[in-house]
Specification:
About 2% of the residues have low confidence. The chain has 13 helices and 20 strands. α1 packs parallel to α4, α9 runs antiparallel to α10 and α10 packs across α11. The protein has two domains: 297 residues, 3-Layer(bba) Sandwich (FAD/NAD(P)-binding domain), CATH 3.50.50; 150 residues, D-Amino Acid Oxidase, Chain A, domain 2, CATH 3.30.9. The strands form four sheets. Strands 1, 2, 7, 8, 9, 10, 19 and 20 form an eight-stranded mixed β-sheet that branches. It is of the alpha+beta class. Bound molecules: flavin-adenine dinucleotide (FAD). The site of flavin-adenine dinucleotide (FAD) has 40 residues, from α1, β2, β15 and α9.
């Protein structure tokens, strides 16, 4: 049922980083908004290591003080490691020198507006998501938690958002709806906008471990709280190591789904067998205590034919998901909210909620996610290129810029163009020393996606 005065100006589906971030931005600007979150927070969630472009959003939202008070581990950089006995990884064009432990530090490149910070955070998502949603509430957003949206009716006037309270179906209407439902892709499914990624078909299994000795892989004590990406001698397979507290570490295996399917193992057995391909990691892990059940995530890469339409926007994972190798998801969710809320404020001011009114957001987001996607594609196709470029002082800071999450301001960053050209050169020349190192995710991945 529609009324001439809607219940809310903006209805937000989902209270994760995208939804809570959006609600903070809108409430701060005085917009009457409501968040529907189907879970009761705190709830666990994958995606615990942030990149520095998230910190800018916390600053915007006056949330940095709370991030510090929560004592989340500070993340100063990232390390990529490979197996000493089985180096599949080199960074020297001539001599194929093995490289086992490569790192970057965020302090190497200052970010605009963030000159006083050389770090970002690793977070317990249960705690972090709750804090951000409560912050939105404090700023004036209405939060309905434990409320799952069942459908949205885009009627002739305002959209009606339907949900159930017990056996009773209820609805509220809003001038527009922002879908922040994450990989549930609520509106993408309802409106049939979702397109599965044809190249990346990843699967992940993860848990938390108490007492995992992070010193085993740290070259220096200052590297202890970095994120570690450990490459396994299995194609397209890696492990994340993310500090959650002083003693608790999140570890997860990411592989192609077909590797898991082939193994015919149950998921826990698969985890240990895969981790066993790096004996030192397996040994270190076995000395620690697993404190959560294993959780798996699959089929998670996709795009949407549209990110915006008349009276709706898709923000965060609800609009796009790309492989998590560079810990990008929360940053994309928060920055999508940052960009999208500007178009929403203009739409409210002009009372124009047409698809065109949201085009600036769509263009910016597509530019950013295209850059991420290409970076990830180059990386999977030829891992060695990544270490090669970060070891080259001409490109190191350009790569760092991408790793910091600053991907939205350039259509075709020079370093990515160079990386793509090098991949094609290696693909075309069977005698190239790197040819045998090409991964099996093809360069079709460079084709433009939606
Ligand atoms: C294996 C893996 C590893 C990852 N590692 C990282 C990492 O290290 N760093 C990083 O930044 N990101 C990582 N990510 C990505 C990260 O998890 C997401 O990008 C991030 O959580 C996106 O935030 P969001 O708010 O868009 O979605 P979510 O955080 O998923 O929030 C969506 C919310 O919507 C709610 N919801 C869904 N449907 C409904 C409904 N019908 N009604 C009401 N509420 C609903 C859900 O309950 C949920 O709380 C990883 C992802 C995967 C799969």
């Amino acid at each position: 049922m529609n009324h001439s005065v809607p219940d809310f100006e903006v209805g937000i589906i989902g209270g994760g980083p995208a939804g809570a971030g959006m609600a903070c931005y809108l409430a701060k600007a005085g917009v009457k908004c409501v968040v529907f979150e189907r879970e009761l927070f705190p709830r666990p969630h994958v995606g615990e290591s942030l990149v520095p472009s998230s910190t800018r959003v916390f600053k915007d939202l006056d949330f940095l003080g709370q991030m510090e008070e929560a004592k989340f581990p500070h993340k100063f950089g990232a390390v990529w490691t490979t197996n000493d006995e089985n180096p599949g990884y080199v960074h020297d064009l001539e001599g194929l020198t093995p490289e086992y432990n490569v790192d970057i530090r965020f302090e190497e490149r200052k970010q605009e507006g963030m000159e006083d910070r050389n770090y970002t955070y690793h977070v317990d998502r249960g705690k972090f998501d709750l804090m951000l949603l409560q912050h939105a509430q404090k700023l004036g957003a209405t939060v309905y938690d434990g409320v799952k949206v069942a459908r949205v009716d885009f009627g002739p006037e305002y959209p009606d958002v339907y949900f159930n309270i017990g056996p009773k179906e209820m609805s509220v209407n809003c001038k527009m709806v922002v879908d922040c439902s994450g990989r549930q892709t609520f509106l993408g499914n309802q409106l049939k906008l979702k397109v599965k990624d044809t190249v990346f078909d990843q699967y992940a299994i993860h848990s938390w471990f108490d007492g995992y000795d992070r010193k085993v892989f740290a070259k220096r004590d200052t590297n202890l709280d970095y994120i570690y990406i450990h490459f396994l001698p299995i194609s397209n397979t890696w492990i994340w190591q993310i500090p959650i507290t002083d003693t608790v570490t999140s570890l997860g295996v990411v592989t192609q789904k077909k590797n898991f399917a082939k193994s015919k193992e149950d998921r826990e057995k698969f985890f240990w067998e895969t981790v066993g391909s790096r004996p030192l990691i397996a040994e270190t892990l076995r000395k620690s205590d697993r404190i959560r059940p294993f959780k798996d995530e699959g089929d998670y890469s996709y795009a949407m034919k549209q990110l915006v339409g008349d009276r709706f926007m898709l923000v965060g994972d609800a609009g796009r998901f790309v492989d998590p190798i560079f810990s990008t998801g929360v940053s994309i969710a928060l920055n999508s909210a940052r960009f999208a809320h500007k178009d929403i404020l203009t739409a409210l001011e002009k009372n124009d909620f047409s698809r065109e009114a949201f085009s600036e957001y769509e263009t910016k987001l597509r530019r950013g996610t295209k850059n991420w996607y290409e970076f990830i594609s180059v990386y999977y196709r030829l891992n060695v290129l990544f270490t090669y470029f970060i070891s080259d002082h001409n490109y190191r800071l350009d790569v760092l810029k991408l790793l910091q999450g600053d991907v939205y301001d350039e259509d075709a960053p020079e370093v990515l163009t160079k990386m793509k050209a090098m991949v094609s050169k290696v693909e075309q020349n069977e005698k190239h020393p790197w040819h045998k190192l090409l991964g099996n995710l093809t360069s079709d991945a460079f084709r433009p996606q939606f």
